[in-house]
Amino acid sequence: MNKHTLYYNLRDAFAEEGCPICRLCSQAVDRYLSHLLYESVNDPGVRWDIRRSQGFCKEHAWQLQRKGDVLGIAIIHQDVIAAISRILRREGGYKLCLSPTYWLRKVLPGAVSEAARQLAKGLAPTGVCPACRQRTEVELAYLETLLQHYTDPELQALWRTSGGLCWPHLQRALPLVRDEAPLRLLIEMELPHFEKLCDELSEFIRRHDYRFGSKGFGSESDSWIRAIAKISGWHGQP
Is the pTM of this model over 0.90? Predict the structure, then answer.
């Protein structure tokens, strides 16, 4: 089976800290945001896409802020805020005041709530955060690459000595499995990681017992941090 860039990126990511899929997705989003600021701020198609989503989700908006391109960020958000202002004026003004239920809202309290729900519907974004969409596409590509090359000895060796996939990405990999062999391998590769981490957490907890004295901690000292990354996803620097 031919190996391509995604395979080598995945192989290298297994040798790094944290879930390899999380790391690769984080890198892809970081590249996307850099390209947006330095190459695509004034691209009409890109701006239209960002207007549809009404900007970025909180996580990616602040990741964009850390890039430090204040002019590019201002241009993007001025466009989004102007679009939201137009929507508010249209939906909250004309449609709300001249709708067929206008007179009902004067006499029926429940009609006000219905009008508010309709207004919320009209104000909702029509697209998803572009950076989230980029992350989802990259995530799928690398999970499929992992399942495509699951028999590769080098990849398996790196997988065994790594911390493995985070729980969310293991869950997302399962619906992509089509045969019993890769399904068994996913469990075979990941179960030892969970069991080892569980043992380390037990030891970490035990050493906090006052009866243990002041003998300090061993390799389990950061197990509580690795537990967060394992269960909720790695959130380190790309």
Answer: no
